[in-house]
Amino acid sequence: MSYEIPESSRPIPHSELSSDLNETFVELVFKLYELDQKHEDLESIRAKAIADLHQSLQKEVKAHPLLAQVTLNGFTLLDIVCQKVGSAGQETIRFLIEANPHALVHRQSDDVATPLHFLAGSGWASDWLLWIVERYPWVFQHEACQQFPPHLELMSSYVTGRCELETVRRFYELYPKGLRERNESSTVGYPLSASLRGTEEPDADFFIWMARQYPAAVYFELTQVPTVLQFVCFLLASTKCTPNMARICRFLISEHPDTVRQLVTGFGYLPIHMLAPQCHRPLVQEMVILLLKAYPECLQQVNGTNLSSFAFILEVKPLVLEELEIDQEISLLGDLSANVRKVIVSPANHFASESTGNGSVANVSLLESVSEVFCSWADLQVKKLNEQRKRLQEQIMEMCRRFETDDVSEASADVVDWEAETESEDSEDSHLFDDEDDD
């Protein structure tokens, strides 16, 4: 797959055409606009008109390939067909792309979307991006696409239910560089964090796959913008308290433990702050316990809400710390036993017993006896510690059940109110947890 951008076909203003060719071009454009105005409510008539127009347009462009480069008020035929005919004109769209693929990234001005961006943001055109990236991967390296990656529109379509999971995953398999691209002027970030910004929650397998393809995206952060783990915790505590979202949260905590300590720059909130007010939910309780295990010192965080003010956290923390101590002791005993066994079975030890006198043999025999006694004692201690840990876990489970309540109130009522925390005039920064993509 080549990302090298071929020599561009220069857009040609229609005024530079000969009078006859200009008349042909303007007539095609007029028919496209007329189609949009006259037939929008008459489906059968519109379908016939679109088919006829496709034949006319195809005939003229084949006769005069230059027409695929011509612009009227800065718009190419591909621009106009995408906007005025839409999903009904897919045959024409394909023909025009093949006639001049550079038209995919042509834009009238810096603040106007390209046809590629239009297709990426249209639910009906999601599969088109697969076709385009397989045939013209270089378009995604164009300046217009590097500045505003169109595949983020595809991700937005996925998380708003307008695009299938397999389509968006297949796109990033074909164009893995896309996972490293983001809109520099937006707070949405990389595709990984963009997958959280919608009415639909991302598939956990897909999220984990993206995170493993480009781990740096997990740590994306901006001033007054929640980190990836913080946003996941926010969703888990508000609108998406599901096993799927909990699996994403577990993955981030276990494979990217540094994210547990990430603060929102300018606020001082930790991921656990997102969950603390909703500890009546079993999944939230589980994540809070995992966060406490990963960062026991979080209660000492002076910024943000005082975590000690939440009864669940206050009661569960001593139990969590005790379990951590037990785990550390079990790990230590296991390491010591393994090291002792290594010494006994080491080749150097056997060589010493075979090549020296009876005294050395006796010493080796004594060492073996001592190691056997120690390992037996260590195994017994580990067994006792495991039993102690089991009782402790049962105690934690009982405490969790005691805090469970019917979730009858608004899910996000007590979750950190980010909008109240900032006076920013930037709408993207003042609505940090909008479900919809802010692009």
TrEMBL record:
Keywords attached to this entry: Coiled coil
Keyword Coiled coil: yes
Domain of life: Eukaryota
Bias (Acidic residues): 416-439
Residue ranges the record marks as coiled coil: 375-402
Chain positions covered by the region annotation Disordered: 407-439
Protein name per its UniProtKB record: Uncharacterized protein
Organism: Fistulifera solaris (Oleaginous diatom)
